[in-house]
Design brief:
The protein is an all-alpha fold. Helix content is about 60%, strand content about 0%.
């Protein structure tokens, strides 16, 4: 009779417990590159050189992840409108829950913008959303449907 024993070992460098720490270091480094890039663009003293910028560009480094995410959600809204004919994404949109949340955030940011408060929405983004047919006050749209 032969007995086979299987031993499973875990590589500590790939364990989930270390991943956030490693990701934290990477995120810190990326944030520093973005700050230095901003300084470089403004003509201020920066540790980033033209060559480093070119290297980061060659790996498609995302200089503005918030802008990238906004544009991604906007493209998803375009797809939604093509499918449904409007921009009235339900908050609990099962096919793409993040899009429903994003729309809700845009509405809140728009209200702040209109009230003259600090907002993540720019005039250009408001124009993009308006041009697509954004409904800023969903309840107004729904009440008009009943008239």
């Amino acid at each position: 009779t032969t007995t086979t024993t299987t031993t499973t070992t875990t590589n500590p460098s790939s364990s989930n417990s270390e991943q956030p720490q490693n990701n934290g270091r990477l995120q810190t480094w990326m944030a520093r590159q973005r700050r230095e890039y901003s300084k470089y663009q403004k003509g201020e003293k920066s540790s980033l050189t033209k060559e480093r910028i070119q290297l980061l560009n060659s790996i498609h480094f995302d200089w503005d992840p918030l802008d990238t995410k906004w544009n991604q959600r906007f493209r998803e809204l375009i797809d939604y409108k093509e499918e449904f004919g409007n921009c009235i994404v339900p908050l609990q949109y099962k096919k793409n829950p993040k899009l429903g949340n994003w729309i809700n955030t845009q509405r809140r940011q728009y209200k702040l913008f209109q009230d003259g408060k600090k907002s993540g929405l720019t005039k250009d983004r408001i124009k993009q959303l308006n041009d697509l047919g954004m409904v800023w006050r969903r309840w107004e749209f729904e009440s008009n449907q009943w008239e």
